[in-house]
Amino acid sequence: QVQLVESGGELVQAGGSLRLSCAASGRTFSSYAMGWFRQTPGKEREFVAAISWNGGSTYYTDSVKDRFTVSRDHAKNTVYLQMNSLKPEDTAVYYCAAAFIPYPSGTIPYETAAGRGDSYTYWGQGTQVTVSS
Hints:
By secondary structure, the chain is mainly beta. Helix content is 4%, strand content 44%. It has one helix spanning 110-114; strands at 4-7, 11-13, 18-24, 33-39, 46-51, 58-60, 68-73, 78-83, 92-99, 122-123, 127-132. The strands form 2 sheets. Strands 2, 4, 5, 6, 9, 10 and 11 form a 7-stranded mixed β-sheet that branches. The longest helix is centred in the last third of the chain and has 5 residues, at 110-114. The model has no long low-confidence stretch (mean pLDDT 94).
């Protein structure tokens, strides 16, 4: 069992930065791939970024590449999402999630699995990020 608690979301102006944190409970945190997703009202949940269980690989959706950075600290059982050059279209509720994905790959490539919401078993409650223009 893994419990996830996000924090760090707030109102920020376009061009600004935020760092989201996701604190995980459970001794097996280091075994899980960790992902960040976001959702706005009326839209489907969208993959944002993910990091492999050992932190060696990271994955991003195209719209956030070169602006967002995902990282993890096993000593603190925490995963981060550093968001720079924020845009109004980044406004959403951001969720972190944990997935046990076979490494280096199972029936589908690791990167593909990390980008799919249905790969993730545990989800946080979400944190609101609002970017004003």
